[in-house]
Amino acid sequence: MDIASLNEDLRRDVLDRFLRYVRVYTTSDRHSDTMPSSERQFDLARMLGDELTAMGIEDVTVTDTCYVIARLPATTGSTTEPLLFLAHVDTAPDLTGENVSPRVWDNYDGGVLDIGHGYSLDPEEYPTLRRFVGDTIVTTDGSTLLGADDKAGVAEIMTAASLLIAHPEIEHGEIEIVFTPDEEIGRGVDGLDIDALHSNVAFTMDGGIEGSIEAECFTAYQVTVSIDGYVIHPGSAKNKMANAVSIAGRFLSMIPQSESPEATDGRDGFYCPVEISGSSGGVNIVLIVRDFDHEEVLRRVKFLETLGATMEAAYPRCRVSVASEKQYTNMAEALSKSPEIMALLTEAVERSGVDPVMEPIRGGTDGARLTEMGLPTPNVFTGGMNFHGRFEWIPVGSMVKAVQTILNVVLLWHEKRG
Ligand SMILES: [Zn+2]
Q1: What is this structure's pTM?
Q2: How remote is the CA of residue 285 from the centroid of ligand 1, in Å?
Q3: Residue 223 Cα to ligand 1 middle (Å)
């Protein structure tokens, strides 16, 4: 089967799906304790469940915690081991995902794209745009994020599934599909029973630029700093008051700016304050701490604890508590035990006409947590760029290559393991 011969069909299908899915409001909510964190994620989960059923797949479930689980049976006679593909339905809470109105720029000419609401995508600032002259590019209208993270991954898996059903002559083993909620708030696999899955190998479709494959990610901690102040009327506060707002400012100012996301790239880790709330009586600060090296993450957590104690010493009437929680672990070590999976993925990307680029992810995915739980799950490109904001964009050609990569993984797995 020459997958490239299907390009035109793939292109139409994946774009059509993508444009439909991004319009569904699925922002997750890190302040909610429910599963899923926002009811609205069911809107897309149920839509996907219905579409998978309409394709003719019998084994489709939308769980009460918003997981879509579907299984394409193996083609007749195939005894190839099952494979799993995952993507997430939620979008990042960083910017609204309500009323997303995608803009489609056919035959991109290499110029500045005035996306709307006073915003533009300028190749001077985003030179990667120049690589996609002549392609169709999808952007936001400037007022929301796009949600290519990860609706591009969802659309690519759905397109691949529909194509496999339309072409029963392509032989394959069982293919499992899982769409998860709440990946963006780090809870993407909390409600997933991995023992119930059939596959021993999985791929998340949740990466960036075409060709990128990721087998390494940050080790991640979240740290919550609670500062209890000592409040007294400011008119009679001399030598008594411990103002939590001032202490919070001082606390934050002592975190090394050279270890911030703004100052780091490549393999360097960081501290990033992501949230602050409160008043002079009490302030809560949430920080995320990241590094590829576990020891370095722990060093930073320790530093924040020491900084809390330093504040207590400097302001004897305040109380500072520092609580840390591990979010996910660098998957490099676990994945290095399955070199054949990365070799297969690399070959699948090459067969799709793209140069594979192995990149460490400056973030994490459901795949990191699954790998930690014993299911090796590297992350594959979706083609999307500038995730989580109004400058998100994606070339349709890259989505096509991602679909081809899924299909080539399926074909190669069958060739090698069938
Ligand atoms: Zn994502």
Answers
A1: 0.87
A2: 24
A3: 22
